[in-house]
Design a protein that fits this description.
The structure holds 2 protein chains of 2 kinds. By secondary structure, chain A is α/β, with parallel strands linked by helices. Chain A has 6 domains: 4-111 and 243-303, FAD/NAD(P)-binding domain (3-Layer(bba) Sandwich), CATH 3.50.50.60; 126-239, FAD/NAD(P)-binding domain, CATH 3.50.50.60; 317-398, Enolase-like, domain 1, CATH 3.30.390.30; 402-466, Orthogonal Bundle (Arc Repressor Mutant, subunit A), CATH 1.10.10; 488-534, no CATH class; 628-776, Sulfite Reductase Hemoprotein, domain 1 (2-Layer Sandwich), CATH 3.30.413. Chain A has 24 helices and 36 strands. Chain B is of the alpha/beta class. Chain B contains 23 helices and 28 strands. In chain B, strand 2 and strand 3 form a beta hairpin. The longest helix of chain B has 19 residues, at 61-79. The chains are: A alpha/beta, B alpha/beta. Chains A and B meet through helix 11, helix 14, strand 36, helix 21 and helix 23 of A and strand 1, strand 2, helix 6, helix 7 and helix 12 of B. Chain A: GO terms for molecular function: 4 iron, 4 sulfur cluster binding; flavin adenine dinucleotide binding; heme binding; metal ion binding; NADP binding; nitrite reductase activity. Chain A: Residues 415-463, 480-529 form the BFD-like [2Fe-2S]-binding domain. Chain A: Pathway: Nitrogen metabolism; nitrate reduction (assimilation).
């Protein structure tokens, strides 16, 4: 299908926003051409006052760069005005006699300032405030002249006045009504604003109708209907705007005040649409930016044949910053006999709020000084929400997002339970992807994407993130060490992708910054390379020889392995005979519930090992510590046999395996928890014939309680779960990552999901056993478990 | 393969990376697989099992059917026809529900058939029948929900139990609807509400009366609507004159201001909807509680109009369809009544049997187990249901199942109930089973099969046909497909209240579902009920007098000082037979628990996350405590998906609602103590 031709008349805020939306909806639907009368790129008129006040440069308020038009293959004609629409032939003609065919036409010609029809309005020094040229003119006049008069005490007039004030002029604002901004503000707010502006140096002439502007060539005085006059070197007409609908009118498109459009922004002529300030919908012509954006969106959807409910008009609300003062208004502003109001007036801080109610519904609001609740109030008004008296009173209470319960959540606490999205995940998404709405958060993180019950919480969290008090940051993934920029996850991934086998290869291939690495990365690499397709030796914690500790000054230490802390007479005899062969040996019971042979000389080691003829306990750092059972615990009379048996079996399977960090296991055979199972990396308590398995506890300096992983009916199931858990930890934890840190990172639910899946759990167990096999095949004597 | 954990921005995912071949990298989202986990689970039964010496032994279909046939015949010979019973399910298709009713009445000729929907929907169904003259889950389509101005959610936790329909309610809220939730607990649903009436469990009748009284006294009713379309205002007024608001406030624990606000908003907004679910229905006065709320719709004229109406939120996949076509003790297809002469005549013709041979009305689900315990029912066929978890007073149910001479279970897994079976037959899961379902709105949809049957599993309808044949009734059950059964169902429902005659498989394939009644092939279905008339003979609705007769309810006492209420958790479904098998769903809730307010817990010396014994007049269970500030201080909550000593329904008494025969699951008086 060939693309249809879409012509847009108007390169202003409406036209450009509309084209952006078209590209979003369906970038392949149309060939687009835009005409703009002004010769500049399209800019944000909203920001003109900021340019005038010197806060922004013109470049900063440009809507889209030249490159954007090029990238999107949009044909742009600036400084070229469309003069005629030939709706019969479906073509537009321009001021340069260009004639272009269209399939669809969108009129976004905006509006022009209303110049008062008074004598002298054409004199030099009488200008409007609409274009960037107007701004430039004002800036240059301000350098030469002193006195400025702004006709119009509405939003635009006040912005112009403020700009001129900043440019060093004396500014008088002339307004026909008795109060400024009377369409947006009630009497109270209006007078507060006036006082503030007067404090800033503006002066006001209210209730004055302009009669004539006098002067030779250049303006000199402004005369009023009441006979008074003032001197002025510059007059800015800011008394409203008129929709630009002349072009439409002469092309046979129906007009009233603006170009008449239906709910899909279509004019009475087929394939011609109108949006923005030039359009009239349902008797309303909108001059604010939100309605314009809504219209652009709906017209774009309609033109791209996407479902839309159509435009149903916008509730007028104003949220502005006038000369540094926040003002807000929505709906009805002035009290009537049928309305009741709630006021808040704080003269000290200069804050005023009013909400108008008709029976149980809010119908309007005005706020001055503090408008943080604007969006909330607007919603209540728009949706005609039923309100109790209590609700009404509550509307004026500003909620500090930092008081919301979600503000005090820890990062790993879930906000969305359906999709298990944590607070941290949302913060991270908001910060890294620059999200600003609940909808965007939903799209990126899936939070509130299922049942939606957490929407309020997501909203509160978002408000909190956006508030000034928020200073938390989602933990940035840290690089492994200063030798590389890779994070641990990236490193693991790269090792796999490039099939790297040793540290040297890693450093070369992955552009290490140091030739030999540092202690941090060397240990980490050693661990990861061992875990990823490394030799069995690497996965274990060392050969029999390494199990002899030589770090102590007074000799070597040997620890015969006694699985589960249980010994047979046979084993004790062996230990005794080994000890007898070594003069001066010390025998001690360690805190690990094992017999230690201490103080061996170097040359005595081999004879000792030979005589012992039994496996030795590993002494390297990151392996399973001896399993703590509740044997010998005197606080209860309960049978302790089950924990000894489980300990024996687990120790046999798990000994010598390398861990990301040393791992503590506690097994209690009764509810009295004699092994302190709830403060171990892995803990088991047998209660009522069932086995409760806890994970992620710690009895270290940062003591923490383990969380219940599951409750198993058989000891064997509990052991499988533990072995599966350990293997998953070994495979996916970072080097030196504690179980609780790892658990916090992955989430308890995720760990359960993996382990409760029988297939995955069995794969994990068999991979652990493979590693174990490999260790057993090392040239040391295979230990056998004690069997009764 | 090397397994690596990877934490994506959204959630933790599990991916597999080929160690030797990096191109096999790919992600596997665990959550996406949940729905299918139970259907493809390794413990799924794939062939018939016969219990021999206490052990289940694999058998051929011939053997299993032969055993069933001979045992059924023997039982009926020894103990009479009605000694056999059928226990159905709201999770089966319309075709199977229909066939099960026919199977009981025609193949077994027993009056004893009922189904688990009795424990679920019966109060709402009875109430709608009494007030409106017809029972269709929603009187309007779901599409109308977003446009309504006020919503009352009574005893329904949609966000956690039916998250799929939640968006309609959210949309309504976004559009400015005022949402009022009635629930003793704070839930994800009450979080959405503008007003939460956190009433005492079981106080819904008093609540409804208080609201009605306020509306009538303030003159907020729609007088024209009442005059033209509603009967019974005078009786209601008379009764309400004797209702004391202060007493209602004391009974419900809800303040006058909140009651007033509810009555005011509901009557003053231009449209409104009420939704109820198990929270108010599973009570010994559940029917009255629902009718009390329907009164509010009737006096304010909020029914039969756009954006105004009633909805009973269904718990089971086919809770609506399951109750329309004859699984219920007193019903025949199309909502016909088994005690109605004309209805009997019509159905016997369709079934080709003598009207005099059709059995009469049987007893309700739980009462069948009472009869079993007494020894009058000695055999049962349980279809896709787990009554040993879902019934009240489970100790009795368990005893009954131990006594029964012969039990057949048709299921996907060996459920708690199936453990007691003599024969287990492997059924089909939703992935393999073609058939129609009727959703909460009364919308009939066709579900096509998407997987072949595993092993020797058979379609549920096929199993019934097989047994019928074994009993010498094959000519009445000659069906070769689900569609053939549906064709008979169309005829059987023709002219009934739930009229499916105009619905065919072909139309369902073309039209995305049709709302009944649909009496003609050219009829487009009925989106909104009661636009012109109600279904009672005179076309008017009946305002109900509720709470006049005191119902036998669980009361607190020094011995049993706390209310216990039960419910679901999001990750699980029904008795959990299916969902507990799914690893990721199990990961979210590994066991039952007791939600308790910390202040209450301290009073009873219960620590957080501690095994706690809960005892009622009927039994005792042990579950872990879980502190929550979201529950009333006089109430504890336990979800009901788990079995064994966590089976909360062991505690529930055998008292039934006099109209719907619904047990009072939602309120039991209990005492609690630390198990240690």
């Amino acid at each position: 299908m060939t693309k249809q031709k879409l012509v847009v008349i108007g390169n202003g805020m409406a036209g450009v926003r509309f084209v952006q939306r078209i590209l979003e909806q369906d970038s392949k639907a149309y060939d687009i051409t835009i005409f703009g009368s002004e010769k500049h790129a399209g800019y944000s008129r909203l920001m003109l006052s900021s340019v005038l006040q010197g806060e922004s440069s013109f470049e900063e308020i440009i809507l889209q760069t030249k490159e954007w038009y090029e990238e999107n293959q949009i044909e742009l004609f600036t400084g070229e005005t469309v003069t005629e629409i030939d709706s019969q032939q479906k073509a537009v003609c321009t001021s340069t006699d260009r004639r272009i065919h269209y399939d669809k036409l969108v009129i976004a010609t905006g509006s022009s300032p209303f110049i008062l029809p008074v004598k002298g309005a054409d004199k030099e020094g009488v200008i409007s405030f609409r274009t960037v040229e107007d701004c430039r003119e004002m800036t240059s006049v301000a350098k030469r002249f002193k006195k400025a008069a702004v006709i119009g005490g509405g939003v635009l007039g006040l912005e112009a006045a403020k700009g001129l004030l900043n440019l060093g002029m004396e500014v008088q604002v002339i307004h026909i009504s008795d109060s400024i901004m009377e369409r947006q503000l009630d009497q109270q707010a209006s007078s507060m604003l006036q006082q503030e502006l007067e404090r800033q140096g503006m002066s006001f002439l209210l209730g004055k109708a302009t009669k004539e502007i006098t002067g030779a060539d250049r303006v000199k005085e402004v005369h009023f209907q009441d006979g008074t006059k003032i001197a002025a070197d510059l007059v800015v007409m800011a008394a409203g705007v008129r929709p630009n609908c002349l072009l439409a009118e002469k092309s046979g498109i129906q007009n009233n005040r603006g170009i008449l459009v239906n709910d899909f922004l279509q004019t009475n002529i087929k394939d011609i649409y109108a949006i923005g300030e030039c359009a009239e919908h349902n008797g309303m012509v909108y001059g604010l930016v939100e309605p314009l954006y809504e219209q652009a969106e709906i017209a774009a959807k309609h033109l791209c044949k996407k479902p839309t409910e159509g435009y149903s008009g916008s509730v007028l609300s104003t949220h502005l910053k006038v000369s540094g003062v926040e003002v807000f208004s929505a709906g009805e502003i002035h009290s009537t006999p049928l309305t009741k109001a709630i006021h808040y007036f704080n003269e000290v801080e200069g804050v005023y709020k009013k909400i108008l109610f008709r029976e149980n519904k809010a119908v309007g609001a005005v706020m001055y000084g503090d408008t943080r609740d604007g969006a909330r109030l607007q919603e209540v008004i728009l949706k005609k929400k039923m309100l109790s008296d209590e609700d009404k009173a509550g509307l004026l209470k500003t909620r500090d997002p930092a008081d919301s319960p979600v503000a005090s959540y820890s990062f790993d606490q879930p906000i969305c339970h359906c999709n298990s999205v944590s607070k941290g995940a949302i913060i991270k998404a908001v910060q890294t992807d620059g999200l600003s709405t609940i909808k965007e958060i939903k799209k990126v993180t899936k939070a509130s994407g299922s049942c939606g019950g957490c929407r309020p919480a997501v909203g509160e969290l978002l408000a909190f993130i956006q508030s000034d008090t928020f200073d938390q940051h989602a933990a940035e993934e840290q690089a492994v060490c200063s030798c590389t920029d890779l994070t641990e996850d990236e490193l693991v991934h790269q090792i796999q992708v490039h099939n790297l086998r040793n540290a040297k290869q890693v450093r070369e291939k992955l552009s290490w910054k140091t030739e030999v690495g540092c202690p941090t990365c060397n240990l980490a690499l050693d661990y990861y390379l061992g875990m990823i397709g490394g030799s069995a030796e690497k996965k274990g914690s060392g050969s029999q020889h390494e199990k002899i500790n030589d770090s102590q000054e007074d000799g070597f230490t040997l620890i015969p392995q006694l699985y589960g802390g249980e010994a047979t007479v046979e084993q004790l005899k062996k230990i005794i005979s080994a000890a007898e062969k070594i003069p001066g040996v010390k025998i001690a019971l360690g805190s690990d519930q094992r017999i230690h042979l201490l103080g061996l000389k170097k040359e005595e080691r081999s004879i000792a090992v030979e005589t012992l003829d039994m496996p030795l306990r590993s002494l390297t750092d990151n392996s399973i510590e001896t399993i703590k059972t509740d044997v010998g615990n005197q606080i209860c009379q309960c049978d302790k046999q089950s924990s000894i048996e489980m300990a024996r079996r687990l120790e046999y399977i798990l000994e010598s395996l390398r861990m990301p960090y040393r791992l503590k296991i506690g097994l209690s055979s009764c509810m009295h928890n004699g092994a302190g199972s709830t403060t171990k990396d892995i803990g088991v308590i047998e209660i009522n014939g069932k086995w409760e398995v806890y994970i992620g506890g710690s009895s270290g300096r940062n003591a923490r309680k383990g969380q219940l992983l599951s409750v198993m009916h058989e000891a064997e199931q509990a052991e499988e779960l533990i072995v599966g858990f350990i293997q998953y930890y070994r495979e996916s934890a970072r080097f030196l990552e504690r179980t609780w840190e790892w658990m916090e990172r992955l989430g308890l639910v995720h760990i359960r999901e993996v382990l409760f899946d029988q297939e995955i759990c069995h794969q994990l167990i068999s991979r652990l056993l493979e590693d174990k096999e490999g260790i057993l095949k090392q040239p040391t004597k295979a230990p056998m478990p004690v069997d009764h | 393969m090397q397994l690596i954990e990877q934490k994506a921005v959204t959630s933790t995912t599990y991916k597999t990376v080929g160690v030797d071949n990096p191109t096999t990298e790919g992600r596997l989202c665990i959550k996406g697989m949940n729905a299918h986990q139970h259907a493809i689970h390794r413990e799924r039964i794939k062939q018939p099992l016969i219990k021999k010496d206490g052990e289940f032994v694999a058998a051929t279909w011939e053997e299993a059917l032969e055993v069933i046939g001979s045992r059924f015949k023997a039982i009926q010979k020894e103990d009479g026809r009605d000694a056999l019973s059928v226990y159905g399910s709201g999770s089966v298709t319309n075709e199977v529900a229909y066939l099960l009713g026919k199977f009981a009445r025609v193949a077994l000729k027993t009056k004893h058939i009922d189904y688990n929907g009795r424990l679920c929907m019966s109060s709402a169904a009875t109430a709608a029948n009494q007030s409106f003259g017809i029972d269709r889950g929603f009187t309007n389509t779901l599409q109308e929900v977003p446009g309504t101005r006020v919503i009352i959610l009574a005893g329904t936790n949609i966000a956690e139990c039916q998250p799929t329909i939640m968006p309609y309610f959210e949309k309504a809220k976004e559009n400015g609807a005022y949402i009022i939730a009635i629930d003793p607990r704070e839930t994800l649903t009450t979080d959405l509400a503008d007003l939460h009436l956190k009433n005492k469990p079981g106080s819904d009748v008093a609540l409804a009366n208080a609201l009605l009284k306020i509306i009538l006294e303030e003159g907020w009713m729609d007088e024209d609507f009442i005059r033209e379309r509603v009967n019974g205002l005078e009786e209601a007024m008379e009764h309400l004159a004797g209702v004391d608001l202060e007493e209602c406030i004391a009974k419900t624990g809800v303040s006058y201001e909140q009651l007033y606000q509810t009555a005011h908003v509901f009557s003053q907004e231009e449209s409104g909807m009420i939704f109820t679910a198990r929270g108010i229905e599973q009570q010994t006065d559940g029917t009255e509680a629902v009718r009390g709320l329907l009164n509010l719709l009737l006096v304010t004229g909020k029914i039969g109009k756009p954006y105004s109406g009633y909805g009973a939120i269904t718990g089971q996949g086919n809770g609506q369809g399951g109750r329309e076509h004859g699984q219920k003790a007193d019903q025949l297809p199309g909502y016909r009544l088994i005690e109605d002469k004309e209805d009997r005549q019509y159905i016997s013709e369709i079934w080709g049997v003598d009207e005099r041979d059709l059995p009469g009305k049987g007893v309700s689900a739980y009462e069948m187990f009472e009869k079993m315990n007494e020894g009058t029912i000695t055999g049962m066929l349980v279809m896709c249901s787990n009554p040993l978890l879902s019934n009240p007073n489970l100790n009795l149910v368990k005893e009954a199942l131990q006594k029964v001479k012969f039990l057949v279970a048709v299921d996907l897994f060996i459920s708690e109930t199936a453990e007691y079976a003599d024969v287990i037959l492997p059924a089909s899961s939703y992935l393999e089973n073609e058939g129609t379902m009727t959703n909460v709105e009364g919308r009939v949809t066709l579900r096509e099969a998407s997987r072949p049957l595993p092993g020797e599993a058979r379609h549920d309808w096929k199993i019934l046909c097989n047994i019928a044949k074994e009993l010498g009734q094959w000519e009445k059950f000659p069906f070769k497909s689900a569609e053939e059964i549906f064709e008979e169902l169309r005829l059987a429902s023709k002219g009934g209240k739930a009229d499916y005659y105009g619905i065919t498989y072909q139309r369902l394939r073309e039209e995305q579902g049709i709302l009944w009644p649909c009496p003609e092939l050219s009829h487009e279905g009925t989106k909104r009920l009661f636009t012109d008339r109600f279904a009672h003979e005179d076309g008017k609705a009946k305002l109900a007098v509720v709470g006049k007769t005191k119902r036998d309810k669980e009361m607190l006492s020094p011995e049993f000082p706390l209310y216990l209420t039960t419910g679901r958790v999001m990750a699980h479904y029904l008795t959990g037979v299916q969902t507990r098998k799914s690893s990721s769903l199990a990961a979210r809730n590994i066991e039952a628990y007791m939600e308790i307010h910390p202040d209450t817990a301290k009073k009873f010396h219960i620590k957080d996350q501690e095994l706690t014994s809960i005892q009622s007049r009927n039994g005792r269970i042990t579950v872990r405590s879980s502190y929550s500030e979201k529950i009333r201080k006089d109430t504890v909550f336990v979800p009901f998906h788990w079995g064994g000593d966590q089976s909360v329904n062991r505690l529930v008494s055998d008292r039934l609602d006099p109209f719907s025969r619904m047990p009072g699951f939602k309120v039991t008086a209990v005492r609690i103590s630390s198990d240690l």
